[in-house]
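ok trying this again, last paste got cut off
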Amino acid sequence: MLFTVKGTQGRSTLDSITGLLKLLLSKGKIDALLVPKRYPNGKSVAQVLITDPQKLDGSDPLAPVQMVNAASIVRELAKEPVRKKVGAVLRPCEVRATIELMKLKQVSDENLILIGYDCPGVYNLKEYMRLIEKEKDKEAHTLQHVEAFLSGDKDTIRESCSECTHFAGSSADIHIAWIGTDAPSIVVEAVTEKGVHLFDDIETKKIEDLPARKQLLEKILVRRTERQKSTLEGFFDLLQPCIRCYNCREVCPLCYCKECLLKPEKMGYSSERYLSRAEKKLEIKMPVDTALYHLTKVNHMGFSCVSCGVCEQACPMEIPLGRIHGVFSRNIQALFDYVPGRSREEELPVLTFQEEELTDVEDIGMKDKLFEEQ
């Protein structure tokens, strides 16, 4: 269901989005909003929980920076049912990660309203900080980035963003569309019943189709899909600089385990074990089993990874973790025709069994053993 909302159009796309959020908050449709908002100095953006519509001035969902994947904040906010209606304004990768956390019983859906929007992507953090220092008008920088996104992704955009094909995903309760809608106009898509009810008493105008939007989305999609052809040649060499700081695990929105089995003390390392391995191999690299750590993490998170790239941003050694997790996860997900966060009803492959899946990789060795025993 596509429609425009009366009284929300502003001077820019960002103004129109803010106008819509103010309307929902002032009408009592939502009691509190989690939304990205600029710091007072304008240089960066933080997630802020707002209950006063006037405090939405300065909010900037389109800012080309993502300090954290906000799904991790939603996990803290809604780990148990919330009393009042809370709206979370999220990028598509954050919406999808939140839905995966719902499936993993880490986020309660009760009174939580997911508000998604078309995402222009973000810069690498260092590049963003360099660019923002030059700008006097911080909002103008956001709008310039949006224009650059529409004309063609810049080389400085985060690699994970340049390969993302879910930039206009619509699995939230409502999705705010601005790509191909003639700025500053925005169009709202009510995806779920919860999203439809948000506008019960609000004046809207239904829209049947957006051909210009479809054409532009397809153009961007082709460009993004082509960029997904990156490989992991020299995989073990890429991991050589890893110092096992665990930053990638800490910022991952889907790493929720209270006890992490990837820590050395949990994997059974002891002084004797280190020495025994050193005696056997004559030398061992410390810390040990770095590749095993990363492969285990990919195996653990591969089904639900949304390729947001915050792991790479957090890495002090600048290892291309976004590319590593992206390549592995896309292959794992394609194997089961699963897209994380595509649907709340679609069960995780790791939690379900289908007799007809993976028939081309059956355990031939086990069949041969059974045949010999007979």
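PB: full thing came through this time. The chain has two domains: 2-227, 235-351.
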